[in-house]
Specification:
Blueprint (H helix, E strand, L loop, with lengths): L4 E6 L6 H11 L2 E6 L17 H6 L2 E2 L12 H17 L3 E6 L2 H9 L9 H14 L1 H11 L1 H6 L5 H14 L3 H5 L11 E7 L4 H18 L1 H9 L16 H8 L5 H23 L6 E3 L6 H13 L1
Parallel strand pairs: 1-4, 1-5, 2-3, 2-4, 5-6
């Protein structure tokens, strides 16, 4: 009997992770755990490429639709939930198949939560005032000079994470990245991690897939989905759920900030930037096996990999 292990199927957005995972579940004793910070929210379906009800009946996914968009779901929440689900799947004699593109969640699962200083209201207010004067783009450039690694992971429009990274540096005199490499709140994992990275070698092809997927989302009713969320009085762009790529741009369209065509262009660009940041994270996992998602035999390769693991 092989030692307990989990298989992490990672990759940038729109590379075909879900489709491959569903095929694997049909052939192996695997159960899928979603590793996606947007799929956890109910009502965020089309814009997250959440599996349809038909697919979920075929291949159930754990950790989707577990929060209302008005709520917050943290990396710490994911760590606790994922460890619980992994334990349950192992108890059934099955293989946990973790699938998604939220790299921070994979990082926290493997290395634990960072031991970081508590929030400081005065410093936060100072950073907020600086942002109001100079703009968040200027603060992102400031972060780039202090902590290039953190700046590479944080989008220039992600005010919350820029603020936190600058706050940590102000409080400790050390970059957020350096802090994250120190104390962790996790005991040694009782299982081995096996990591597969699914990613097209041709970035042009990935960009094409991203654009086509968004056009398909629009045809399927993505704007109606966002309008339903927009009409809720308890939701705004202050909620982490609505800051997800696609939802933010559609929300700002409903606010009248730009035209429909501009919204489409901004969403595709933002999604490509997300994929670039995801790939930057993925390069950190040096023990992972990279697979070209455009290769015709990629599914067979993964199947052979799994066969070797369980025999």
């Amino acid at each position: 009997m092989p030692a307990p292990f989990i298989l992490c199927l990672m990759g940038p957005t729109a590379c075909g992770k879900t489709a491959l995972a569903v095929e694997l579940v049909q052939r192996f004793p695997c159960e899928i755990i979603s590793v996606d910070s947007a799929m956890v929210y109910r009502g965020l379906d089309l814009g997250t490429a959440k599996p349809t009800p038909d697919i979920l009946r075929l291949a159930p996914h754990r950790l989707i639709d577990i929060r209302d968009p008005a709520e917050i779901y943290s990396a710490g929440d994911f760590q606790a939930d994922a460890l619980r689900e992994i334990k349950d799947i192992h108890a059934q004699g099955k293989i946990p198949l973790l699938v998604g593109g939220t790299m921070l969640y994979f990082h926290v699962l493997q290395y634990g939560l960072d031991t970081l200083p508590e929030q400081d209201p005065m410093i936060r207010e100072q950073i907020q005032e600086e942002a109001e004067q100079d703009g968040w783009l200027a603060l992102h450039e400031k972060l780039q000079s202090l902590d290039p690694d953190a700046a590479a992971r944080i989008h220039p429009n992600d005010a919350q994470r820029i603020q936190r990274a600058l706050e940590v540096y102000t409080l400790t005199g050390k970059p957020l990245t350096a802090q994250q490499m120190q104390g962790k709140t996790r005991a040694p994992l009782p299982f081995a991690l096996r990591q597969l990275i699914l990613c097209p070698q041709d970035r042009t092809r990935l960009h094409e897939r991203i654009e086509q997927r968004f056009l398909t989302m629009l045809e399927q009713g993505f704007m109606e989905e966002v309008r339903h969320l927009y009409e809720r009085p308890d939701l705004s762009l202050e909620k982490p759920a609505l800051r997800s790529v696609g939802y933010r741009q559609a929300w700002e369209y409903f606010e009248g900030k730009f035209s429909f065509e501009e919204m489409k262009e901004k969403t595709v660009i933002a999604t490509r930037q997300l994929a670039k940041r995801q790939i930057t994270w993925l390069r950190r996992w040096q023990e992972a096996t990279w697979l070209d998602s455009e290769e015709p035999g990629v599914q067979k390769h993964v199947e052979n990999y799994l066969k070797q693991m369980i025999t």
